[in-house]
Design brief:
Two copies of one chain form a homodimer.
Chain A: H1 7-21, H2 28-35, H3 39-45, H4 49-72, H5 79-96, H6 104-113, H7 117-143, H8 153-172, H9 178-190
Helix pairs in contact in A: 1-4, 4-7, 5-7, 5-9, 6-7, 7-8, 8-9
C-alpha cells in the first residue's frame, strides 16, 4: 500500500517547483507546503535542500533516460528521424509551457554548476550518459550515410545536444519557440551527409 | 571629481557577484558589503534588487556591445576569422575563470527569463541587438563566399550564438572547456561554404 508521504511524490512535485523557480528561489517551506508534509518528514527523506535537489535531479534524469532509450533505440525509424523526433518532442513540451521552465538539468547546471561541486559533478555525469545515448544514434546515422562522418559521433552528439540547450535557454527570453525551430531547421540541414 | 559611491563601480562589482552567484543567491546586504556602502545609498541608486540587476545587466551588455562592434566590424580581417576570434576570446575568458561563471545575460535569462517578464524582455532586447551584430558579420561572410548561404544571415547568427551559449552552459558541468572547443571545431567546419 502506498505511503501517505511518498518520496517519489515529493520529488515529482519538487522537480516542477525547481524547474519553474530554480534552486535558490525555492525554499524548503514551499516544498513542505505543496506536499502537505511537516518539516520532520522532509528531513527524514533528505539531509538538506541540496540533497533534495540532487535527488530530484537524479529522478528527472532517470525519467529522461527511459524516454531517450525507447525513442533513440527504436530501429524501425531512421537515426535522423529519431533525433528529429527527440528534439521536436522537447520543442512541443517547452511550447506547452510557454518556454518558461526549460530543462532541470540545464537550469541547475547553469545556476549551480559553476560554484557547487556536487551540481558540477552531477551535471557532468548526467550529460555524459545522455550524450552517450545520442552518440549511439549519431553513429548509426553515420554508418547508414545519413549524417556527416567528418566528426567523431561522441563529439557531434555533444555539439548537437549542447546547441539545443542553448536554443532552449534563448527561448526563455521573449517566450518564443523561434530559437528552437531555427535550431531544427539549421542543425539537421548542416549535419546531413 | 569622482564620487565616493559611484553607481558605475557598484554595478561593476555587482556584475561579478551576479555572474558568480546568480540573482536569487545574491542578497542586497552582500552588494552593500562589497561596495562598502550603506543601504540608503543603494536605494538612492536603485529602486530594488531587481532594478539593480537589470541595470547591471544593461551595463554588462553595453560593454559587450562595444567589444563586439570593434571586433566584428574590423574589416581588415575576414568575417569568419572575426567570428572565430570572438568565440575564441570568450573561451579563453571562461577558461581563466575555470568555466565557473559564464555569461551574465545567459545566466539571468536562464534563471529568471521564464518567470520574470522584465528579465524575459531585457533578454530578448539584448539578444536581438547582439544577434544583429553577429548577423552583419555572417552576411559579409556569405557575400564573400566563406559562409554557407543556405540560411538567412539573421537565422544562422541566432543559431551560431545560441549554440555557443549551450556549450558555455555545458562547460560548467565538470569545469571543462571541452564543450566550447568542440563547438569551435564543429560549428566553423559546418557553416563554411
Amino acid at each position: 500500500m502506498r505511503q501517505k508521504h511518498n518520496i517519489d511524490d515529493i520529488l515529482e512535485n519538487g522537480i516542477e517547483l525547481l524547474r519553474e523557480k530554480g534552486y535558490n528561489n525555492t525554499g524548503v517551506e514551499e516544498i513542505l507546503k505543496i506536499n502537505h508534509i511537516p518539516k520532520g518528514s522532509f528531513y527524514n527523506f533528505f539531509e538538506s535542500k541540496e540533497d533534495f535537489a540532487l535527488k530530484a535531479l537524479e529522478k528527472y534524469v532517470q525519467k529522461q533516460f527511459g524516454y531517450i532509450v525507447s525513442l533513440l533505440g527504436n530501429r524501425s525509424v531512421s537515426p535522423v528521424e529519431r533525433l528529429k523526433k527527440f528534439y521536436t518532442d522537447m520543442i512541443e513540451f517547452n511550447s506547452n509551457e510557454d518556454c518558461a521552465k526549460g530543462c532541470l538539468l540545464a537550469n541547475l547546471t547553469q545556476e549551480l554548476g559553476g560554484t557547487n561541486p556536487k551540481f558540477s559533478d552531477a551535471g557532468k555525469k548526467h550529460y555524459e550518459k545522455i550524450g552517450s545515448l545520442i552518440a549511439a544514434c549519431v553513429a548509426e546515422g553515420q554508418m547508414s550515410g545519413e549524417i556527416t562522418d567528418k566528426f567523431e559521433a561522441s563529439q557531434l552528439a555533444c555539439f548537437i545536444h549542447n546547441s539545443f540547450n542553448g536554443a532552449v535557454l534563448r527561448s526563455k527570453a521573449g517566450h518564443s519557440t523561434h530559437p528552437m525551430v531555427t535550431y531544427m531547421d539549421i542543425m539537421f540541414d548542416l549535419i546531413k551527409k
